[in-house]
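Thread: Modeling a multi-component assembly for a lab meeting

Hi all, long-time lurker, first post. My supervisor asked me to bring a structural picture of a complex we are working on to next week's group meeting, and I have zero experience with this. I have the sequence lines for every component (276 residues in total). Could someone generate the structure of the whole assembly? Inputs are pasted exactly as I received them:
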Amino acid sequence: MPELPEVETIVRKLRTGGKNGVPPLPGLRITGVTLRWSGHLAEPSAAAFRRNVRGRTIQDIHRRGKYFVLPTDKGTLLIHLKMSGDLLLEAARAPRDRFERTVLHLDGGWELRFNDARKFGRIYLLDDPERRLDRLGPEPLDPGFTPQLLGERLSARRRALKPLLLDQAFLAGLGNIYADEALHRASLHPLRRSDGLSEPEVHRLWRGIREALRQGLRHNGASLDWVYRGGTFQNHFRVYQRAGEPCSLCGTSIVRAVIGQRAAHYCPSCQPERWP
DNA sequence: CACGAGACCTGTTCGC
DNA sequence: TGCGAACAGGTCTCGT
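Re: Modeling a multi-component assembly
Sure thing. I ran the full set together rather than chain by chain. Output:
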């Protein structure tokens, strides 16, 4: 489910607090933890995590790539939702989700709940979170992410655009939805080689990436199926999961293909594999 | 370095 | 209605 815009939407909500008196997450102290699926804990082990997380006060929450970053007064929590995770701050007495796996109990009767149907999500409690976050590529919405930087990184590689955009070490935050949507906005075929783009094409890709992400953010992310709720970007998809439907720009049927073992959606007319 | 296959998991939806 | 197959927002590791 969650790519950059979905994670960022959740971060903003947790940082400011919500309706019904839900407080901001920063400032709350962790009083205990419930682990219904210990596989959630990547590092350290469940026993050490249990021991070390109790009594920590969450000082902040922000995002790096698709990771939630929660510095505490001793150690930093990293949370990755992977495919089917969701993170909610709720009253302890609120009914719990069927797929609630991990709960951080907080002062004041609040709980940070990690729901995760597929159990792919992971939690880290690290003294040095950079050790992991350093592996990520640049943040596409940061001012430092310029068309020039993108161009340099593209030409340093020799891969198809689609799998490269999904590589978090190349660029942090895009997933299958936003990669497809970015390529359509850039009018670039997903199989175009990264080192074969003209300067205008690099610029289009840069703009396409940022437009897709910004639009996603504006709509609080995308909500598909039963997994994540709250976002409406799914109503603005131009290609993702729209195979057979007409392209909003030219009317040609959107195509679905498998590229790098993932579904890819594109308009064969607006995104030609090569120019004549 | 690039790429594909398989693994990790469970749930929903589709096709017969 | 039932049942198996296909498919799903993401990484990670291993072999070629």
